[in-house]
Amino acid sequence: MADVEAALDAAGLTNPHVRDYVKYYAELTGAERVEVVTAADDDRLIAEALEAGELEPAGEGRYYSRSYHKDTARSEERTIVATNDEKDKGVYNNWRPASEMKPLLEDRMRGASKGKTMYVVPYLMSPPGNELAPWAAGVELTDTRTVVLHMIRMARVGVEHINELEDQNSFVRAVHVTGDLENLGQGTPEDQRYFVTIGDERTILHFGSSYGGNALLGKIAHGLRQGAYDGWASKKFLAEQYMLIGIHDKETGKDYHVCGGFPSASGKTNLAMMLAPDALGDRYHVSFYGDDIAWLWVDEKTGRLMGMNPEYGVFGVAKDTNETTNPTALKSVDPGTKTIFTNVAYNPKTQEVWWEGRTPEPPADVDGWLDWKGNPIAERSEAEKNDPWAHPNSRFTTTLDNVPNIAQDYDAAAGVPIDAIIFGGRTRDREPLVRAIHDLAEGVYDGLTLGAEATFAAEGVEGQLRYDPMSNRPFMAYGEGDYAQHYLDVVGAAKEQPIFAHVNWFQRDPEDGHFLWPGYRENLRPLLWLLQLKNGEVKGNRTPVGILPTEEELNLDGLDLPAEDLQRILSIDKERWQQEMGFREEHLKGFERMPEAIWEAHRRVAAELDQYEG
Ligand code: GTP
Ligand code: SPV
Ligand code: MN
Q: How far is CA 61 from CA 39, 169, 193, in A?
């Protein structure tokens, strides 16, 4: 048994509530040692992980890790938000009573860390001193060293974040126990995994994975699910799966801030790291605040809607990241950045990494190359020849200060004022490049009816269309109707309303399937139009589903686009939209207590569509 008191004393961990919590779970999980972690321990932990073979070197100051092959993405089916009140049950939160889930999880965890070290990771999911910092402190307990190394990159880690709490008992208890990955029946009827957030007890209990959002509890479980619950319970803020960027106009000297939700693996990181297109680079600069989570609140003094990124790093999708699509991402994972790559292809002889889309063709000389499962490429059978080298959800983990376009004030306590909120997903037809929405209820309605093709960020099928309200479907923490009302309340309280928009970079030609819009850096163009619309500098083309840019208004300097493609992405298909309105009605009917304002917005759009002549 671990000498918990001694370990906590040695680390200077004085918060009595944290001490009790650590003692309780050290005993329950049967951990052999307890070790309190601070960000400054990173080099030592890296050295230990290399020594133990949990990491391998990937060139100077970069590392490679491989997760168990059945443990490579979030599992939405096994994820539950429990509370003590059945009223919190929604459609997507898989609600269960806390009284059922807590004992169940504690049973799984009992004795499951025997012989292992339990790392105590005190963290803060906000810039220090931020108005929402009281909801941002947590302590993750984990029995896996690579999880600690990821947490140090993704969150601000150190005992000061919990020792100095004003309310010493106000921290999230986040327990992660990996379990015996080879015997958990992942994806079978005997699946042993459970990923549970107990919203009203501010307790997170995750069992059965050491990958990504299943294991980095500060990120998804606290930053999104617990944050959403707390934001609603306190009536104070929203926690959303949003990227957050700044756009600086060097000509006018103005700064704008845009945040927005795209479902997992649909382009948030790429948008946040975007370089202005060459032809516009002299005038505009895009700065990075966050790529996956934003918390939003209204500043009581100024009345402005504010946003901040609670994270400290980027856990980005590797696939298709290259010099053309995202040079910024490549620089963020340069030698010396202490980046950790997970489940990409790896060559232990040369310490190189590779993933699909990194270069047009995989390395010609396959000598030494291993696929993401660790199998030599050279030994592949005929049947395996076309299998990807990297897992489609393989990722890189790096800290914010490695991102070349990081905003100067990313760490500032104040957060930034929000000018626009955008929603988007992978949609192969119907959705134009951008449609702007001035009305709050119509904007929220639009977010709630966000539909997109599924991706590999969660287990399951790629390409299947599904609704993903506000890109928050996997992170919903309470009922969707209550969520909609809370959203209306928070944003509605702002003196200056943000403009909403729906964007789509993924429309395809119905015949040959090519993307109609080049995407990536070019995505700045529709955003600039949106800000011009908000400023009253352009008028656009009014349609029932929002205002679209005219061809003349969209700045296409230096971009050569086929006329028929442009025409298609700047128009709406009335019949497809009318069909969609029927699907939306069914989708919205599935939620309890959907505010009347949302239904009114739905009926207004539907009625206008029926009248629309195009
Ligand atoms: P999560 O971290 O899972 O929440 O994902 P994300 O929304 O940050 O997605 P990310 O930016 O990492 O993009 C996922 C995939 O979409 C990558 O393979 C990108 O190359 C691709 N992608 C991003 N932006 C565009 C775009 O504008 N056009 C096209 N065609 N693909 C894009
Ligand atoms: C997502 O799936 O939306 C992610 C990655 O951002 S994970 O941390 O695995 O949730
Ligand atoms: Mn995400």
A: 16, 38, 34
